[in-house]
Amino acid sequence: MRVHAYAAPAAAEPLAPTVVERRAVGPNDVLIEIKYAGICHSDIHTVNGDWGPQPYPLVPGHEIVGVVAEVGPAVTRHRVGDRVGVGCMVNSCGRCANCRAGDEQYCLEGMVPTYAGTDRDGTITQGGYSTHVVVDAGFVLSVPEGLDLAAAAPLLCAGITTYSPLRHWGAGPGKKVAVVGLGGLGHMAVKIAHAMGAEVTVLSQSLKKQEDGLRLGADHYYATGDPDTFERLAGRFDLIVNTVSARIDVDAYLGLLAVDGTLVNVGAPAEPLSLNVFSLISARRSYAGSMIGGIAETQEMLDFCAEHRLGADIELISADRINEAYERVLASDVRYRFVIDTATLG
Ligand code: NAP
Ligand code: ZN
Fold this sequence. Notes:
The chain is an alpha/beta fold. Helix 4 packs across helix 5 and helix 4 packs across helix 10. The protein is built from eleven helices and 17 strands. 23% of the residues lie in helices and 26% in strands. NADP nicotinamide-adenine-dinucleotide phosphate binds next to helix 1, helix 4 and helix 5. Keywords: Metal-binding, Oxidoreductase, Zinc. Pfam families: ADH_N, ADH_zinc_N. Its cofactor is Zn(2+).
């Protein structure tokens, strides 16, 4: 099946309309008619080659929602017409200890990313800036009624990437949580941490988005461009979720943690970060990382968001504005996720 898509022809070149081939629907596959696809900063890192060489042409997009158009004969959990989503992975070995524990994202054989990966049938995966995709049923999530479909798209990456560490490190009543960076991931982290009952603080470069941050659920908002912030908040937080796509001064943020506090990096800049171990030793602090979440946990997150009526704050765009959206994301000018209306793909 040949379908319309938007692809990067080479590293750092503007994306352009194209046509890609989707495999025939196998026994355990689902054909999804994609309605909306979110633009994640990871799409931009990947297209630009920040994380290493990539296969081109490359169709990004791992925040996919749509409607089931066809299912293979062995598929029981999705039916034609169901509202479904696909996130950052489309397969994993299913047998290793991590897969069996529900942590498919940490598959010991390597999970198959939704784009620029090699699928288990040997083909290169192409992502969601496209009208249709064929995905193994085990990696297709149900989008609950009550969630707006376009606003649900960013949950498939920004939502789960923030939900998972917030759950893992126990965000909830009585916990002080800081979110660094108020972009796509950051704004979902604020909404979710607030819904979990934590006391939430936004640490943004400036106070430009303060009103938004408080509306999204933050209790406090500080500018990291103001050196006083790091003195005033020293030793304050139980958990800091860093969503920044660029280098940060790790020691400065570790200094904001209470004893036993954790700074978890979900932001994935290309350049290495360094730290002074005394920032950890001096208060038994931890520095951690976290990647998306497992399939069952992603469904749990979607159900949690439906229960709490949480979608992303989105700016819906037509496909011909993808390159402009990339520029705006790079300039931290996103409020708070661009979502592509795939009906405009041609
Ligand atoms: P985004 O929408 O661009 O948000 C990043 C935010 O970081 C910006 O809005 C800005 O917030 C802040 N920021 C940007 N440049 C900065 C700089 N030079 N110094 C300080 N702050 C800066 O990006 P996103 O889609 O949320 O993704 C964020 C990062 O997470 C990316 O690196 C992405 O690849 C990564 N990611 C990781 C996972 C995972 O599984 N771990 C999953 C998805 C994405 P303020 O304007 O408020 O300061
Ligand atoms: Zn993403």
